[in-house]
Amino acid sequence: MNDNFLRACRREPVDVTPVWFMRQAGRYMAEYRAIRARHTLLDICRRPDLAAEVTLQPVERLEVDAAILFSDLLLPLEPMGIPFDFVKNEGPVIERPVRAAEDVSRLRRCDPREALPHVLATIRLVRHELDGRVPLIGFAGAPFTLASYAVEGGASRSYARTKALMYGEPAVWHDLCDTLAAVVSEYLLAQVEAGVQAVQLFDSWVGALCVRDYHEFALPHTTRILRAVQASGVPVIHFGTGTATLLEAMAAAGGDVVGVDWRIPLDEAWERIGADKAVQGNLDPTLLLGPIDRLLAGADRVLRQAAGRPGHIFNLGHGILPETPVEHVQALAQFVHARSA
Amino acid sequence: MNDNFLRACRREPVDVTPVWFMRQAGRYMAEYRAIRARHTLLDICRRPDLAAEVTLQPVERLEVDAAILFSDLLLPLEPMGIPFDFVKNEGPVIERPVRAAEDVSRLRRCDPREALPHVLATIRLVRHELDGRVPLIGFAGAPFTLASYAVEGGASRSYARTKALMYGEPAVWHDLCDTLAAVVSEYLLAQVEAGVQAVQLFDSWVGALCVRDYHEFALPHTTRILRAVQASGVPVIHFGTGTATLLEAMAAAGGDVVGVDWRIPLDEAWERIGADKAVQGNLDPTLLLGPIDRLLAGADRVLRQAAGRPGHIFNLGHGILPETPVEHVQALAQFVHARSA
């Protein structure tokens, strides 16, 4: 088995820098679009045969060192009592947003083993089909990011309602995040039991908080999840965007690897995070839309910024964009391996 | 005249910390909503009587130390040949986005004195009605931010098309920004001639760039504008959001004051910016949606982080949100004055 990814998570020496990509299964790939033409996103998430097929597509097509479960961050919300749907050009839409104490008290602390058995079946199927070629990463959303969808009713720019709840009714906020943390912890542990070999906690939108608010409103809940999953023995990646001023706090929250975006040079990021953690990142995903020489020059810089100690997993600073040419992703993965060999 | 704002821009001692708010004229205020009920945003921008009235509303209602011209960042695009409109719940929509060399070569380097005379008339009217009570700030968008609207066709999360143009056709990108910089420079100089006493350059979305890209794709064009306006003698504020890793570069680009958002503590920001510039900011605007004690505690922290040298202008880290209670804005302005006296 190619264990470079798991070795890098543990800051052990590797023969080449491992690489995988957030949203490596997605609309930029013709194989994925062919399936999406016949099924909705949620259908794919709910059918293990389709979710497994989509999870494996980038492993067949790209030289990646890990597969990541195909799923959606919001899946646990539905069995908790927060149904949602994806509306074309709008993204996720939550029918009844969580805005008040009554909404929070109504939430169910569901057992993900019963509520999301299809996700666990997908994991077993993918592990079987991967047959040890590369490790499989599981994932879930962190409480702040999940709460922001639940409170706003979808995506947001200002997180106005989310922060108004945080500031105005901190007890309700903490109750909401406590419930989310309980479900997410169990969800990730269930993924580990089903076979994922590492886990990424996505706090994608946490960069909207200042560090003080991060400590008060996000960190305690995130720490609880990170500790629970780390106790299971698999490496945990803790990821967010726009986190240049939060990296020390995110590292303090826990996890083995901190994932960073392109807004901060990776060497500066690692210095803030500390040498006792691995790092993941951090090429700007829009570089994949430009010419290949600029793309590879950018990748080379990321590799050089991370050189000198083990513990770098190459990735983008955020997910692959739908308009990305697949050949560029292939060339990038190859380059990372060749250049770091 | 209350010249605390202008004195702080020049890092001269003041008796109280001056305060104004981005979007201090806007939907959070009943007086503004009464006018917007009968006129579109663009109508108000184009009618000096209405634009002046709206500009003055917060000066009547709040204890602010400056007025800011009521206008929209995108106004100069229309006479350049990039018409747009505001669509409910969607924000600005540009009919024919700028995507290729032909689109850029078709742009007009209009003279804002001829193309936007209503803006200049508004300035004269506001100056007359202010009668020296507080200074009037003019503004315009910086090339990166304006180009992002022109290229994306509206607001964006990923700036995928903008960056694809930047990376893929840098000559076209620079040509576009060169044209924008020429028009914006003249536009701001015309505002100064008409009577604004300071100017803010909004590079609101520049935080999407890493520092290397900032230097290559944004800084040269921004510098050109900042230099041209500084030569006119009025103080210039250079503002962006999500700029924690760009502050040194933004300071190097020019301007007298750097405006920062809440994602970085103001003392850390000022250290990055350098003691030879004034700073503006940086309370999270969503704090205005919560309880007043938390709001004022946040304002107190900002004041303490900026204490010790002259050159702090109190502001939010971004514009006032529409759902903000006007009483909280009043209380905040009063608190800043009382606490810093």
Strand order of the largest sheet of chain A: 1-4-5-6-7-8-9
Describe the biggest sheet of chain A? 7 strands, parallel
> Counting H and I runs of at least 4 residues, what is the number of helices of chain A?
16
Q: What is the N-to-C succession of helices and strands of chain A?
A: HHHHEHEEHHHEHHHEHEHEHEHEH
Helix content of chain A: 40-55%
Provide the β-strand percentage band of chain A.
5-15%
Which term fits the overall shape of chain A?
Answer: globular
Largest interface: A-B, 37 and 37 residues
**Quaternary organisation of the protein chains:** homodimer
Number of strands of chain A: 9
The secondary structure category of chain A is: alpha/beta
The separation of the N and C termini of chain A measures 18 Å
Mean pLDDT of chain A: 97
Unreliable runs of chain A: none
* Radius of gyration of chain A, whole Å: 19 Å
Can you walk me through this structure?
- The structure is a homodimer of 341-residue chains.
- Chain A has 341 residues and is α/β, with parallel strands linked by helices.
- Helices cover 50% and strands 11% of the residues of chain A.
- The first copy, chain A, contains 16 helices and nine strands.
- Chain A has helices at residues 4-9, 30-36, 41-46, 48-61, 77-80, 101-105, 112-115, 117-130, 143-152, 160-168, 170-194, 211-231, 247-253, 266-273, 292-306, 326-340, and strands at residues 67-68, 84-87, 91-94, 136-141, 198-202, 236-239, 257-259, 278-283, 312-316.
- In chain A, the strands form two sheets. In chain A, strands 1-4-5-6-7-8-9 form a seven-stranded parallel beta sheet.
- In chain A, strand 2 (84-87) and strand 3 (91-94) form a beta hairpin.
- In chain A, helix 9 (143-152) packs across helix 11.
- The first copy, chain A, is globular.
- The model of chain A has no long low-confidence stretch (mean pLDDT 97).
